[in-house]
Structures are given as C-alpha cells and as structure tokens.
Design a protein that fits this description.
Layout (H helix, E strand, L loop, with lengths): L5 H16 L12 E2 L2 E5 H13 L2 E5 L14 E5 L2 E2 L17 E8 L5 E7 L5 E6 L4 E2 L3 E4 L10 E7 L5 E7 L3 E10 L8 H11 L1
Parallel strand pairs: 3-4
Antiparallel strand pairs: 1-2, 4-13, 5-6, 6-12, 7-11, 7-13, 8-9, 8-12, 10-11
Helix pairs in contact: 1-2
Length: 208
Amino acid sequence: MIRFATSAAALACFAFLAACSAAPSEPVETTSAQIGSCKEIDEHQVEHACLHSFAGPFRNVTASTASPPDVSHEHTAYRVTLPAVSSPDTDADADAAAPSAPTYAGSVSFVPEEDGEYAIYTSSPAAELSASDEHGKSVSFECTTEVPEDLCSGLRLLRVADFEHESPVTLTFESSEPGVLLLIEHLGRGHGHGHDGDDNNDNHERAH
C-alpha cells in the first residue's frame, strides 16, 4: 500500500521519476493480487500509476468536442477540465426552487504508440467515459472496476481497453464535476494481436 509522509514522499517521488526515465529492466515476476474484475492488471501496476497521480509529470488540458486535445504522453497525469454543458430539463413535478445539477462534458484524443491493452485511470467514479475510434465507431472496455481508496486515493476508477498502433481514440467524458484526472498506461499486447502470454509480460516491463 502507498503512504505519503512529507519527507519520505519527496525522496520516494524523486526515486520514482528517475526510475521511469531509466533503461528498461528484465521482466520481473509479480504475485500482486488482481484489481476487481480486471484480471489484466494487479496491485503493482496500480501502485505505479498512483505515484504518477501524486508525483506527475502533469499536463493541463481542456476537453473539447470540436477539437479534442491530445493526451498521448506516456507516464503523464492529465488534469482535464470539462466545460459546462446544458443542464437536463427540470421535471415538471420537481421543486422549481431546486435547479438540476450542472453537467460537464468534453472529449480528449489518445493515439496509442503500440498495439495492446491500455489501463485508463480516472480520479472520480462520477466521470462517465466512452471511447470511439477515428471513424466514430464505439470502442468497448474489456473491464471497468473501482480502485480501493486505501490502494490509491488519487485514481479511483480504471478501465482496460485494447487499442491499435497509431489508431486515434476519442475519449469522451460526462460528469457532475468540472474536472477529472486522467492517466493512461500501456499494459502489453492485447487479445487478437497474435502474441502469447510471455509477450504480454515482456511488453508490460518495456512499457515502464
């Protein structure tokens, strides 16, 4: 589990950022438990992503349906601002003095550097997310599960999807909150790409 004390956190974050820029190491076996229904990901991978949510690097973007900003940089936590959109119509029987809550929405663009499975982490379960390819066709998530708060308080929901090399994906958010933290990590080769389990492990290590 991750604990952030004032002095210890500074040292841990420095060592972590240095490790991310270091040369890839040989694959290391892990016995971490899987997270919820997502068998493709375990606690070790979530802890790695969680450090990025606290230590960065960070980038600020504003989601847009007209021109979605790019969120393709590896090991980067994006602070996504969601513009306000029209509130739903107030029910005729509802109390007129209690207006409906505002809704925020917008899209970002992700271009995968490799084929395979990607973990899409967001900071709030309140942010609904959908994905579509460059032709507007819906892209399904292989799994969606909450991240336990004691494992990572900065990233609370994760989804896993299988993306293709350099095929743009539009990620569209709708939320009751005006912003969300987004982090996308490559897990390895996915289904249908002609690679076995050993390649999955090898690609996961190279991605980090």
